[in-house]
Every structure is written in structure tokens, then in C-alpha cells.
Write a structure and sequence with these properties.
This protein has 421 residues and is mostly helical. It has one domain: Growth Hormone, Chain: A (Up-down Bundle). It is 79% helix and 0% strand. It has 19 helices and no strands. The longest helix is centred in the C-terminal third of the chain and has 41 residues.
Length: 421
């Protein structure tokens, strides 16, 4: 199959392979540990620590920049991830499973972070800028779809197995084995579908090969507006970082403690059906909007579209409507807003990485993004327990304001991302 000039063949599943491990490690693990009896506080702290590989990935990103090809890196890392999930599945029934599975998730997280570096670099090398802006929506959509496949279809499978066996341990063990096999299939597909040729691969410019780690790092921190750039990246997802950690516990916890009282299967159905459709539409429209009119026109509208739906969770937590259709409505609006709005943030990160060593610089930018997710996420369980779900979602909404304010001060070319004639 010749795919070098057909990005539709390889972009979807290559980014699905980046998002699925992240979803399972960061999000699905929250539901798994919740149903296996772990407290909200421990869930918040320990699953947030799993962000660390994405935070520190710039430390080894120059290796991926210099050694081998991006394609070899992401295929190897995807294979390691597949094996890790299989091992998690066999470990869950054992005594002391919590810390053992966390350790294995850490191995998978390091491999997944490395896979992200290589996949991002591959995307930046193979596609020209005008195609990058168009496919950024497709790319972020399939990344997010993979997260919904985790939070939706994988959770739905776990919920079905919980009902079938009446044993949460067995259900989640089988589910993790399935995830490992699914990742193995995706790895094989990516082996056959991704282009064999990379720009500069095998014949890299001499100055790139001879750059030291320190030189690459220093060049990133010498970028114009770097202080403002890092502040924006760290604070943009301040609210979302806490929302993601406590949203599943909120939906699963009983009404008498402020939750919505859903079971695992209900959560999977909500995110795996209409949520998937809303996210897909939002992400595609976001990428098309930027490619047609540029990032400048759409940055603020997209950020607001992404954050305003948090109000829906505030209303759910305060009124606890009996009908599940209200939950569906909130999730549909939130997923559409996320798909549409996050395309702007990802396009901005591409702008930040522009120039030499863009793979390593993109890894640095996304590393700071992960740090902005990890630190607030670690505290989210304690904040939720102290405030209760209703006030917690109000706090999450307020936490989006600093990022919105900073977005008005960052600069980039007026027509950045706009498709050229």
C-alpha cells in the first residue's frame, strides 16, 4: 500500500496509537481503580503522577531527534506498550495489584511519551505547513477519539464484564488484556500504513546531528515571548486537568455523596456513543476553520467553546436531574467544544515548535503542557473531597480564566495555519 502522499491512510491510526495508551493510563485507570476500591485521594495523587513521563520527555527527546528515524521509534514504543497492557491484565488478580500495576503503567507511560515524540516529529517532517493546519483537526480528533474509545468503549466492555462475571477484578483483568491485543493490532497496521520516507531521514543536515542536548534546550528557551508562552501552556489546561481526574468518580459515585450514581457500563455508553460523534464533528470543524481563516481569528472563540461547557457539570452537580438524557446533553456539548477548541491549542504548539529541532521543541512544549496537567491533577482528589462536587466544578470553571486572559497576549503570524492557495 503506497501511502506517502495519502495522509488519510496513516494519520488517523497513528494518532489513535498515541491517544489510546494515554487514555488508558491517565483516564481509564481512574475508573478501574475506583471500581477496585481505591479512594479518590489516592486516585488523584497516583494516577496524576503517571503524567510524569510526559512532563520529562524533553530530557530524551533529542535522542529521538538525532538517533534513527521517527518511524522506527514509534513502532518500537507501540510494541512495548502492547506488552505492558497485557502484563497489567495478568497482574490485576494478584495481591498488591495497586502498586504493581502502577509500576507497569509507568513503563507504558514512558513508552507512550516516547511514541508521542516520534509521532509528532514524523507528522511535522512529512507534511508541509498548509497540510498540517488542515490535518491538525483530524489529528486531534482521532487522538481524542482514542481517548473516548478508552473512556467509552473500553469502559463499556469493562462494565459489561463486571455484570457478566459479578467480579470487578476478573472484568478489568480481561479488559486490560484486550487493550494490549488492540494496541498490537494497531502497531501492525501502522507498520504497513505509515510512509517509509521522512524528510531528512537518513541524510540529516550536519548541524542537526552535531547539536548537543544543551544547545537544543537553550534554543527553545531563547524563543521570543518564552515566559509568556510557558505561562500560557502551563495554565491553559488548569481547569481541565482537575475535571478529567474527578469527572468519572463524579458520574459513578452515589447521589448521597454528590455523584450521579451511574454504573461503569452507563459511563461507557455515554462517552462511547454520542460523545464520540460530537467530538469527531467538533475536531474536524476546528481544523477546517483554522485552515480556511487562520489561527488568529479562531483562537479566542475556540478557547471559549472548549471551556464554557464546564457550566453543564456545575448544573448537574447542583440539581442532580433524574433523567440520564441531561447527562448525555452535557457530555455532547462538552465533547463538541473540546474537539473544536483544542485544535487551536495544538496548532499554537506547532507554532511554538517552529524552526530547527522542531521535534525536540514540540516535545518540550507538550512536556510543559503535561506538567500543567500533572500538578493540579494530583491535588484534584483532595480539593474535591474538601469542596464537594458542586463547588468543585465551580472552582474548575474559575481555573480556566488565567489561560483565557493569557491567550490575549501571545503572538503568532496573523495567518498562521491558513491554507495557501
Amino acid at each position: 500500500m503506497k501511502t506517502d502522499n495519502k495522509p488519510w491512510f496513516w494519520i488517523p491510526l497513528l494518532n489513535f496509537a498515541s491517544g489510546l495508551p494515554y487514555a488508558v493510563i491517565i483516564s481509564v485507570s481512574v475508573i478501574m481503580y475506583k471500581n477496585l476500591g481505591i479512594s479518590n485521594e489516592d486516585i488523584g495523587v497516583y494516577t496524576s503522577l503517571l503524567y510524569l513521563p510526559w512532563v520529562i520527555k524533553p530530557l530524551w527527546s533529542p535522542l529521538i531527534e538525532i538517533i534513527g528515524t521517527k518511524r522506527k521509534w514509534f513502532l518500537t514504543m507501540q510494541l512495548i506498550i502492547s506488552i505492558a497492557f497485557l502484563v497489567v491484565g495478568f497482574t490485576i488478580p494478584m495481591n498488591g495489584f495497586f502498586y504493581m500495576t502502577l509500576a507497569i503503567f509507568w513503563v507504558a507511560a514512558f513508552a507512550s511519551a516516547s511514541n508521542d515524540i516520534a509521532s509528532d516529529g514524523f507528522y511535522l517532517l512529512v507534511l508541509p505547513e498548509d497540510k498540517q493546519s488542515f490535518f491538525i483537526g483530524i489529528r486531534s480528533t482521532f487522538y481524542r477519539l482514542s481517548m473516548l474509545a478508552g473512556n467509552g468503549l473500553i469502559v463499556l466492555l469493562a462494565g459489561y464484564l463486571e455484570h457478566k462475571y459479578g467480579d470487578n477484578t476478573k472484568a478489568w483483568s480481561y479488559t486490560m488484556v484486550f487493550v494490549g491485543l488492540l494496541m498490537a493490532f494497531i502497531t501492525v497496521y501502522n507498520y504497513f500504513s505509515t510512509p517509509r520516507t521522512e524528510i531528512n531521514a537518513g541524510e540529516k543536515p550536519k548541524d542537526v546531528n552535531e547539536k548537543s542536548f544543551i544547545t537544543i534546550f537553550i534554543s527553545f528557551f531563547r524563543k521570543k515571548q518564552i515566559g509568556l508562552i510557558l505561562s500560557f501552556i502551563l495554565l491553559f489546561r488548569l481547569g481541565e486537568s482537575q475535571l478529567i481526574k474527578m469527572l468519572s468518580p463524579f458520574l459513578i459515585d452515589p447521589v448521597n455523596v454528590g455523584g450521579m450514581g451511574l454504573d461503569t457500563q452507563d459511563v461507557g455508553i455515554i462517552y462511547g456513543t454520542f460523545g464520540v460523534a460530537a467530538l469527531t464533528i467538533g475536531g474536524i470543524l476546528g481544523g477546517i476553520a483554522i485552515s480556511k481563516q487562520g489561527l488568529t481569528k479562531w483562537m479566542l472563540p475556540m478557547i471559549l467553546t472548549m471551556h464554557l461547557p464546564i457550566i453543564g457539570f456545575i448544573l448537574l452537580a447542583h440539581f442532580h436531574p433524574a433523567s440520564v438524557y441531561y447527562i448525555y446533553a452535557v457530555v455532547i456539548i462538552e465533547q463538541f467544544g473540546y474537539g473544536f477548541g483544542f485544535a487551536a491549542f495544538m496548532m499554537y504548539l506547532i507554532h511554538v515548535a517552529e524552526g530547527e529541532s522542531k521535534t525536540a521543541h514540540y516535545a518540550l512544549a507538550t512536556g510543559f503542557m503535561a506538567l500543567g496537567m500533572m500538578l493540579p491533577g494530583m491535588l484534584s482528589g483532595y480539593i474535591q473531597e474538601y469542596l464537594g462536587y458542586g463547588n468543585f466544578f465551580i472552582w474548575v470553571f474559575l481555573a480556566t480564566i488565567p489561560g483565557i486572559i493569557l491567550s490575549r497576549f501571545i503572538t503568532f503570524p496573523k495567518d498562521f495555519g491558513k491554507k495557501t492557495a
